[in-house]
Amino acid sequence: MKPEPAPDYVVIGHVTHDRFRDRPVATHGWSPRRGDAERPGGTAYYAGVAALRLGRTVGLVTSFGADFRYRAMLAPMQIARVPAERTTCFEIASFDGRRQLRSLHRAGELSFDAAAASWRAADIVHCAPVAGEVRTSVIRDGGRGHRAATLQGWLRTHEDGQLVQSLYPADFPASLDGLDWAVVSTEDLGGSDAGRWRSRAEELAAHVGVLAVTEGAQGCALYAERCETYVEPFPAREVDSTGAGDVFAAAFFIRLSETRDPTESARFAACAAALSVEGVGASRVPNRREVLDALRQRRGVTVAQAESAR
Predict the structure, then answer these.
(1) Is beta strand 124-127 parallel, antiparallel or unpaired with respect to 179-185?
(2) Which end of the chain has the least Cβ crowding within 10 Å, N or C?
């Protein structure tokens, strides 16, 4: 049998069981109730799916238990698995326009050691923690290509059975030294307090080559070469926003590797993320042709600009 080609996009992070409830999570005591919806999740899952649909060969370094129900949905990613007793699981409830998460279980720690040596030659290595399972030291151990990260999983608590809370260690920005590109949300940096999240974004940008701070349906702030640029959102008919930031990140990193143009890459990524929210879960993560078609149809984006995204 012919060996598989080494992946050119490697993503490191937990795939998860995401359980969705129709009411807020109680402060203490939880047990599954009949009718709760569940599907696969995790930054690594959504980013991996997006990278596949944008034409990349994907390697996934992850950890899950025998209880993981969605192995078939990871195909055709190449999998480097760290065995675990149980799969990482989050309970998610929405109320008053906000999401509330509880961490139920956490799988194993991850490093590049689980992957084949050939994976270190990948064009992009994407650190994608959801529960602190990837140490920031992996940034400097990330092979010879571009080093990228989604920061969310380093900026929140992850104690089993507890509600997930935001955190921002004072030494966190310096731990990102060596990182080429990063994506983080305003929610992770201070939420509605614009002064706080902008101050923290500037701290992070001093240690990262290019930083995109996403504001959901409000667009994103882009920090590159000591300048801040606002990139407007792409319109969407939102059905489910889960994973949209992860799709944005994968599309952003891929486009950056192709063009070295942060602003154009953010526009491409915003379009991909907007298309992804028009279905449930990963069902509407777009391929490259769909992104190009949407860009062509948008006022102010020419066919030539859309074609340049090939």
Answers:
(1) unpaired
(2) N
Sequence-distant (≥ 6) Cβ neighbours of residue 245 within 8 angstroms: 43, 150, 152, 183, 185, 214, 273
Which residues, 6+ apart, have CB-to-CB distance to 208 below 8 Å?
176, 179, 180, 181, 182, 223
Q: CATH assignment of 9-307? A: 3.40.1190.20
Contact 60, 134 (CB under 8 A): no
Tokens 């940034």: give the residue: 139
CB atoms within 10 A of CB 159: 12
Q: Is the bond preceding residue 129 a cis peptide, omega within 30 degrees?
A: no
Strand order in the sheet with 9-12: 78-83, 58-64, 9-12, 124-127, 146-150, 179-185, 208-214, 220-224, 227-231
Per-residue pLDDT of the chain (310 residues; tens, 9 = 90+): 566 789 999 999 999 999 987 654 443 333 444 445 899 999 999 999 999 999 999 999 999 999 999 999 998 999 999 999 999 999 998 766 677 889 999 999 999 899 999 999 999 999 999 999 999 999 888 678 999 999 999 999 988 889 999 999 999 999 999 999 999 999 999 877 788 899 999 999 999 999 999 998 889 999 998 789 999 999 889 998 899 999 999 999 999 999 999 999 999 999 999 999 999 999 999 999 999 999 988 755 544 456 554 5
Residue type present at position 192: S
Q: Whole-prediction pTM value?
A: 0.91
Backbone angles phi, psi at 103, to 5 degrees: -85, 120
Cβ atoms of residues 99 and 92 within 8 Å = yes
- Closest to 190 (Cα-Cα) out of 179, 175, 200, 205: 200
Domain ranges of the chain: 9-307
- φ/ψ of 207, rounded to 5, equals -115, -5
